[in-house]
Task: inverse folding
């Protein structure tokens, strides 16, 4: 295999893309994820998290999750003293599977969302939010 | 905090067309005490949060939310519902202390 300049650059970009995929590491987090998924595999899917890049005040960070057709969505803030934020179950009239709320964030972290799809599979998404002043101790 | 300070508020459109997706906004004044906070004389302030929120339309579930202490004080919850007919949205907030706060709003669908 020849390492052309172009190929080397492409490999570098590939490595960068891999680091973007959220891999929850802590055992507590894994327990919260397994509690929701029952140990099922997590894929990428139509689940979207909308949150600010930078939150001035960690005591109320607006977060919106959307996953058309989802049965339920769990939001996790891994670095919080209580990493579980909420679990939303959508009923038959829930339209597009959207919920928006404000959450506490102790520090800068990746917010994780998990969604259960109608076919019983699970998808995940993560988004990084920089927190200027943490909002869990006040 | 006495329960009279805890006031739910909802914003629901007055009218919509059949099966239109409407945006519902809810807010309840509540301290959402996490149970992690220590007051100045060193005692831990006990956890006191809204632990569940539900919204039904004419008895049918729209949204059922389990809430943990990481949700902000004065929980604001915004979501969508599709409305097949005229009727009433019923919202409930369930407190750790057993209180249930309720609010309702009707919508005319044509």
Result:
């Amino acid at each position: 295999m020849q390492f052309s300049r172009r190929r080397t650059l492409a490999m570098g970009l590939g490595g960068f893309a891999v680091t973007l995929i959220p891999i929850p590491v802590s055992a507590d987090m894994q327990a919260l994820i397994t509690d929701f998924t029952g140990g099922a595999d997590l894929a990428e899917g139509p689940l979207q998290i909308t949150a600010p890049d930078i939150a001035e005040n960690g005591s109320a960070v607006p977060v919106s999750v959307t996953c058309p057709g989802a049965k339920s969505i769990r939001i996790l803030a891994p670095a919080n003293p209580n990493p579980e934020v909420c679990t939303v179950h959508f009923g038959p009239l829930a339209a597009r599977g959207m919920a928006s709320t404000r959450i506490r964030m102790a520090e800068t972290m990746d917010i994780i969302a998990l969604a259960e799809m109608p076919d019983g599979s699970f998808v995940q998404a993560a988004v990084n939010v920089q927190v200027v002043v943490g909002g869990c101790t006040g | 905090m006495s329960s009279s300070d805890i006031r739910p508020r909802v914003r629901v459109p007055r009218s919509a067309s059949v099966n239109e997706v409407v945006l519902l906004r809810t807010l309840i004044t509540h301290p959402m005490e996490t149970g992690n906070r220590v007051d100045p004389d060193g005692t831990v302030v006990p956890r006191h949060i809204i632990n569940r929120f539900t919204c039904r339309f004419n008895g049918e579930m729209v949204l059922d939310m389990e809430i943990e202490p990481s949700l902000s004080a004065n929980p604001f919850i915004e979501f969508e519902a599709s409305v097949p007919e005229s009727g009433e949205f019923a919202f409930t907030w369930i407190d750790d202390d057993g209180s249930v706060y309720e609010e309702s709003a009707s919508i005319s669908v044509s």
User: Anything to note?
Assistant: Strands of chain A lie at 42-43, 48-50, 54-57, 61-66, 72-76, 84-90, 98-103, 109-116, 122-133. Chain A touches chain B through 33 residues (CB under 8 Å).
